[in-house]
Amino acid sequence: MKLIQGFSKLSKEQKVQFIANRLSNDGQDQNIDAQKVKEQLLSFWHSDKKLQSTFDEFSENTITNFYLPYGLVPNFVLNNEVYTVPMVIEESSVVAALSKAAKFWSTRGGFKAEVIASEKIGQVHFIYEGDKESLKSFFEDKKIDILNSLAPITVNMDKRGGGVRSIELVDLTDKEENYYQIKMSFETCDAMGANFINSVLEAVGKYLEDSLGEDVQVVMCILSNYTPDCRVRAWVECPIEDLAEKSIGMDTATFASKFARAVRIAHIDPHRATTHNKGIFNGIDGVVIATGNDFRAVEACGHTYAARDGQYRSLTNCKVENGNFYFEIDIPMALGTVGGLTKLHPLAKMSLDILERPSANKLMMIAATVGLAQNFAALKSLVTSGIQKGHMKMHLMNILGQLEATTTEKEQIVNHFADKVVSFSAVREELNNLRS
Ligand code: MEV
């Protein structure tokens, strides 16, 4: 394998040519035609050149766009308001399941949510080789001065009602020789706030270096994506008998108890908890991506929170008590509705318009509730008909798409497989039968 020098300096067209050549000449598959590779990559370029250059600038070494489906979940009743929720997700069944859960709860009081707190954290990690007590008194003496020195960075955020909320010196020398942190908390209003927080932290790091000289080594200044105090609780509840619905196929008390047990199992067993929470993030990630937020940050934080007592557990809880069914999610969620991609990506902007331009807190509640709804839908299927029934319907449509079935063929095949097991080969065979 040959290394290439200066790849980033090539034009976009040259990068396309490079990969087309590599696929056709150096690749395993000698049948790949370079011209076809180029044509395919170019076919995903946007016809609006200005828009295309906006997309290109989001990242580096871009050669084309990678499409993902953008769908809508209607009738999402949250805190007595009706939302249409935009979702970017490639996995079939997620939007369908969410839509069903939204409809189900829309006639049972809807979803409820509250933001418990919206505090973000950042840390300056540093080594101090001088005397511990003199560091502590330096920090106490200079705390106000440090905060005042940040004014040029914080002035706008302060005006919006945000800014630095606390600053403390943390002694971790029992874990690593001479290791301390300046730990700060922030309110970043409607911004996710990563740039703001990191700029503040770097200024604090510089203050330490300027004031403490050679005794200090700043290792790094960076926000923490673990924000347990930037958190949402969302829930649904209703009398057990109101859970009645044809698709449940059992009495409501049995359903409620099986459902609650399924949640308990995800608290007991990390293998199940991982899949359970993965389903929750099927919903959350869809909204987070659609609104131009950072799904890696949201996931990393959620998973850390799920393991906060030392074992990875469910992010949802269920109680069936005194004839009542109660199901909640308690999840950290740091999202923004200004800055970053939220204005730059035209569809992220449109998603926020569809959600009626929410504040960051409102968007956090929407995303957490979508996670709860997704988990409700998954568990409802799992403890009743099983997950494959719904999945297979969508899977069948995907297979039919791949086999280029016509609309009439699709209708006939869907009818045929209504009571049969779906597999690629079985569908291909049935389609061949039809066509012959
Ligand atoms: C599939 O993407 C997600 C589920 O496996 C979630 C779950 O099992 O709870 C259906």
TrEMBL record:
Pfam families: HMG-CoA_red (PF00368)
Single GO MF annotation: hydroxymethylglutaryl-CoA reductase (NADH) activity
Pathway: Metabolic intermediate metabolism; (R)-mevalonate degradation; (S)-3-hydroxy-3-methylglutaryl-CoA from (R)-mevalonate: step 1/1
EC nos: 1.1.1.88
Keyword NAD annotated: yes
Record has Transport as a keyword: no
CDD domains: HMG-CoA_reductase_classII
Catalytic activity: (R)-mevalonate + 2 NAD(+) + CoA = (3S)-3-hydroxy-3-methylglutaryl-CoA + 2 NADH + 2 H(+)
Superkingdom of this protein's organism: Bacteria
Keywords: NAD, Oxidoreductase
Family: Belongs to the HMG-CoA reductase family.
Protein name: 3-hydroxy-3-methylglutaryl coenzyme A reductase
Taxonomic lineage from the root: Bacteria, Pseudomonadati, Bdellovibrionota, Bacteriovoracia, Bacteriovoracales
